[in-house]
Design brief:
The chain is mainly alpha-helical and 210 residues long. It has one domain: BEACH domain (Neurobeachin, Chain: A, domain 1). It has helices at 46-58, 78-84, 91-98, 113-122, 171-182, 185-198, 205-209. Helix 2 packs across helix 3. The longest helix has 14 residues, at 185-198.
Length: 210
């Protein structure tokens, strides 16, 4: 799709493919563990879909220059890439530069895969998809450089390695199972629906509204 590792604003984008980040075991033969790839991530949760529909239907630009739209943010942008890859260079340095010379507050850091998914389900305006690293690069989930990423405000927990789903025993195990999910029969049968949304005919026009 003309995307490249050399430009954070055009970084390769992969979908969230699972919706089960809490089970002890991951059953890839069960369609219920997979995210609905026919819908944008912002409306996978029906509650969010309702809010997004209402926002779209009620939107009116007083100047008459802006068309109705569903999302004011993007499924991939440079800040989102740095958010996921903060533990590895050069993304650490780029993140610090973006935040005026320091790490962003700990509560806004990428610190847990289950919590990140839950935040997506709770917030219709967070529509970030994933980067390719989620499927091949376990090191980005580990704070191997021992960066001081701060403490969470409520739990006072130190932000260190990314917290994994219960079904993953290690960063390597997460990548292995996540890659297996990507290459599963279910995703092979439905991935084209997501491609239509992100790169294809459902980006704009009547199909996008639908």
């Amino acid at each position: 799709a003309g995307r490249t590792y050399n430009d954070l604003a055009q970084y390769p984008v992969f979908p969230w493919i699972l919706q089960d980040y809490t089970s002890e075991e991951l059953d890839l033969n069960n369609p219920a563990v997979f995210r609905d790839l026919s819908k944008p991530i912002g409306v996978v949760n029906e509650k969010n879909a309702k809010a997004m529909r209402e926002k779209y239907e009620n939107f009116e630009d007083p100047m008459g220059t802006i068309d109705k739209f569903h999302y004011g943010t993007h499924y991939s942008n440079s800040a989102g890439v740095m958010h996921y890859l903060i533990r590895v260079e050069p993304f650490t340095t780029l993140h610090i530069q973006l935040q005026s010379g320091r790490f962003d507050c700990a509560d806004r850091q990428f610190h847990s895969i289950p919590a990140t998914w839950q935040a997506l389900m709770d917030n219709p305006y967070d529509v970030k998809e994933l980067t390719p690293e989620f499927f091949y690069f376990p090191e980005f989930l580990e704070n191997q450089n021992q960066f001081n990423l701060g403490r969470l405000q409520v739990s006072r927990e130190l932000v260190n390695d990314v917290i994994l789903p219960k079904w993953a025993k290690s960063a390597e195990d997460f990548i292995y199972k996540h890659r297996k999910a990507l290459e599963s029969e279910y995703v092979s049968a439905h991935l084209h629906e997501w491609i239509d949304l992100i790169f294809g005919y459902k980006q704009r026009g009547p199909a996008a509204v639908e």
